[in-house]
Amino acid sequence: MGERRIVRRLVGIGAGLGALAVLVVAASTVWISREASGHVYDVDDAPEAPVVIVLGAQVRDGKPREYLAGRLDVAVRLVQDGRARAVLVSGDGAGRSGDEIAAMTDYLVEKGIDRSKIVGDRYGLDTYDTCARAVQTYGVTKALIVTQGFHVPRAVALCRGAGIDVAGVNAGCECRPITMARNTVRESLARPKAVLDLLSGRDPVVVSEPEDSLGKALAAEG
């Protein structure tokens, strides 16, 4: 009888913790959706901003994989259409899959973007750090930020929380449905941390002195 009571109690505790986790994810999703509401666009409807921020993702053999290529293609379109004048590529310069910044920069140049218009942040280790460093290191106050649709609301909420007047732009992806589903689930689980990051106002993992590389990119001709 004692063992049964223990099992029932453990099951009850597990169910309670599970319900709490669901509640936390749901509440953070609602909060992020509210913060991003009215600030998410498709590429055809995106507003103008001085800079477009592209969030890093995995690369393979020095080339962007599907997610990252989709984001970069949107950035190219925004620059070519005159809706952004410079690109801030932000990711992990020493990522497990390779140097995201070098891969993004080379891809943009191959697509016709002048290298002088591209600034790389090697320490955008997650979305929060990208937004915080965009403000603290590069002086960004207004921007577009490009990522896939399931990720855009969190990116917008984090950047707006960091003090950027930002609009999110949806990027496509020639990805397998299972990949999209897996990343959508991961995104929902990342939202509580995003809320905690904003509430804590933590410093990015790497804090750098302010620099004017983005200002020079915006002023460059070509």
How would you characterize this protein structure?
Pfam families: DUF218. With 222 residues, the protein is an alpha/beta fold. The chain has a single domain, classed as Rossmann fold, CATH 3.40.50.620. The strands form two sheets. A six-stranded parallel beta sheet has the order 1-8-7-2-5-6, sandwiched between helices. The protein has a two-stranded antiparallel ribbon with strand order 3-4. The N and C termini lie far apart (80 Å). The mean pLDDT is 88.
Give the gist of this structure.
The protein is an alpha/beta fold and 222 residues long. The chain has helices at residues 2-36, 66-80, 100-110, 127-136, 152-162, 177-200, 213-219; strands at residues 40-41, 51-55, 59-60, 63-64, 86-90, 118-121, 142-148, 165-171. InterPro entries: Cell_Envelope_Assoc, DUF218.
